[in-house]
Design goal:
The chain is mainly alpha-helical. Helices cover 64% and strands 0% of the residues. It binds zinc ion.
Length: 262
């Protein structure tokens, strides 16, 4: 077993700081990506790099001192400095999760290429989970490159043998697409999107086919638990499965690495 190890406190801090900053960028992706990729109607929110960060309520540009992950949110008590509109708690939450993803990747893989790949996998899942929560879509602009990245990483057997990754991508896609088609046939409407199938394909491309049953089970259990806790489990409403799959995918890939399976 490769028990998680923090190689060096200073290097762990560097990973944490980098993760927080990337989390801050992921907030931009979550806010602007859906309009950029045509998934939502309405205002044009700009590209991922321009304009500079602005307040969604009053459109005032945010000065550099207002862009420090988590700290700025706390200092401003969650309000815009210009118009005092409430800032969504999503901003500090995504920043904190970005920091956690980077720390977890380094703890599971040390300072190696694998840690970088794990972090990139985690950051992509983080953006996907929040975009799905806000829009109900898992954009191809993230899922398709993620499938390619997983296959690319395992072409060098970074996590699993290449054949396991290819079977993982194909089986992940086929399993959920099969469920979606069967559901549509039985109920005459969409219950699950093709985005979920592409997401599970990406998870299979990174972690190999052997982890897929655990990912689907943990993702479904987590989704149901959240729905029951929030009492939104109206069984006729489709539950967004993406966020649960994202969380389960990252945690199961990390666990497989820490416990040296397969
Ligand atoms: Zn404002």
């Amino acid at each position: 077993m490769n028990f998680p190890q923090f190689p060096h406190p200073v290097l762990s801090l560097v990973a944490l700081a980098g993760g927080l900053l990337i989390g801050s960028f992921l907030n931009v992706v979550i806010h602007r990506g859906p309009s950029l990729w045509g998934l939502v109607e309405g205002e044009n929110r700009g590209t991922l790099v321009s304009p500079r960060s602005y307040c969604p309520a009053c459109k005032a540009p945010i000065p550099a001192s207002g862009l420090i992950p988590i700290v700025s949110f706390l200092l401003q008590r969650g309000r815009c400095r210009n118009c005092a509109a409430m800032i969504s708690p999503r901003y500090p939450i995504v920043e904190a999760l970005g920091g956690l993803v980077a720390l977890t990747a380094v703890a599971a893989s040390g300072w190696a290429l694998a840690a970088l790949a794990l972090a990139a996998f985690g950051f992509s899942l983080l953006a996907l989970a929040f975009i799905d929560l806000e829009t109900g879509y898992l954009p191809d602009a993230i899922t398709l490159p993620l499938i390619a990245a997983g296959l690319g990483a395992n072409a060098f057997a970074l996590f699993v043998p290449f054949t396991d990754a290819v079977i993982g991508a194909a089986a992940g896609y086929a399993a959920l697409q099969g469920v979606a088609l069967a559901y549509k046939r039985l109920r005459g409407r969409d219950g699950m999107g093709e985005g979920d199938a592409k997401l599970l394909a990406a998870i299979g491309a990174f972690g190999g086919w052997t982890i897929l049953p655990f990912v689907v089970f943990a993702g479904a259990a987590g989704t149901l638990a959240v729905a029951i806790l929030r009492k939104t489990a109206a069984l006729n409403e489709p539950l967004p499965f993406g966020p649960g799959l994202c969380a389960a995918g990252f945690l199961v890939v990390i666990a497989a690495r820490v416990f040296n399976v397969p």
